[in-house]
Design brief:
Blueprint: E1 9-13, H1 17-29, E2 33-37, H2 43-49, E3 54-58, H3 66-72, E4 80-85, H4 90-98, E5 103-106, H5 111-124, E6 136-138, E7 141-144, E8 149-152, E9 155-157, H6 161-172, E10 177-179, H7 180-188, H8 198-209, E11 220-223, E12 227-230
Parallel strand pairs: 1-2, 1-3, 3-4, 4-5
Antiparallel strand pairs: 6-7, 7-8, 8-9, 10-12, 11-12
Helix pairs in contact: 6-8
Length: about 240
């Protein structure tokens, strides 16, 4: 596959010029289109002109560090985020996941492993097909799968694609507890290991955007030891 034929667009955020050039050469040889950004504080501007499928980002960056960017990016970017860092402890990786990263790779980076991780994230980010094209209606909440829009009390709610897919999954099984294991398998195609916080972070963001009570959620409930439950009756108030 040539770069021109490839639908996969990578934004590499790395200030080490030598390493960035090596990664670019290897990704391009594997059929990917790559652009490089050297600073963290210019990434959001770059997203306006370049629409990547995935962001490959170092943690230690000038301007804004990669972890801070992880918190900001979901409001501007719907694709996957792969963090790179020489900091490889479990605590460092967990922090990255809690802040919104989809994967984490430790430097020095093995090129073949990096390509495998990128391809895995691209597969994960393919959207599940929605069989109910008429949408879902719960009181004041309307979910439209075709346009991927959410309306609550006649106001549109801005969700990322990851957040929409999670909400659709929960709402399509309204009133039933969905286990974390099922959610991880369905959305991410991985097993839940008991430590990964990606889905918990997305649930927290959904609750905030949908007006749920953060301390005592009543719309998207946590059923301790089991999973999450979308409460259909909670959208009437």
């Amino acid at each position: 596959m040539t770069e021109a034929q490839s639908p996969h667009r990578v934004l590499l955020v790395e200030d080490d010029i030598r390493l960035a050039n090596l990664i670019v050469d290897y990704l391009k040889s594997n059929g990917m289109h790559v652009e490089v950004e050297r600073r963290g504080d210019t990434v959001l501007t770059r997203l306006i002109s370049y629409k990547p499928d995935i962001i490959l980002m170092d943690i230690m960056l000038p301007g804004i560090d990669g972890l801070t960017l992880c918190e900001k990016l979901p409001d501007y970017f719907a694709g996957s985020i792969l963090l790179m860092s020489a900091l490889g402890t479990n605590e460092d990786q967990i922090k990255g996941f809690e802040l919104g990263a989809d994967d984490y790779i430790v430097k020095p980076v093995d090129p073949a492993l990096l390509v495998a991780r990128i391809n895995n994230l691209l597969r994960r980010n393919s959207k599940p097909q929605h069989s109910n094209t008429q949408g879902l209606l719960f009181g004041k909440l309307h979910i439209d799968p075709l346009s991927q829009t959410i309306r609550l009390e006649e106001k549109e709610v801005d969700l990322t694609s990851h957040e929409f897919e999670l909400l659709w999954l929960l709402a399509s099984q309204a009133g039933q507890v969905m286990s974390r294991q099922y959610i991880y398998q369905y959305l991410l195609n991985i097993d839940f290991d008991g430590k990964d916080r990606k889905i918990d972070v997305r649930i927290s963001r959904l609750r905030k955007k949908l007006g749920d009570n953060i301390e005592t959620p009543f719309r998207i409930k946590t059923v301790w030891g089991q999973g999450y439950l979308f409460a259909p009756e909670a959208w009437n108030n």
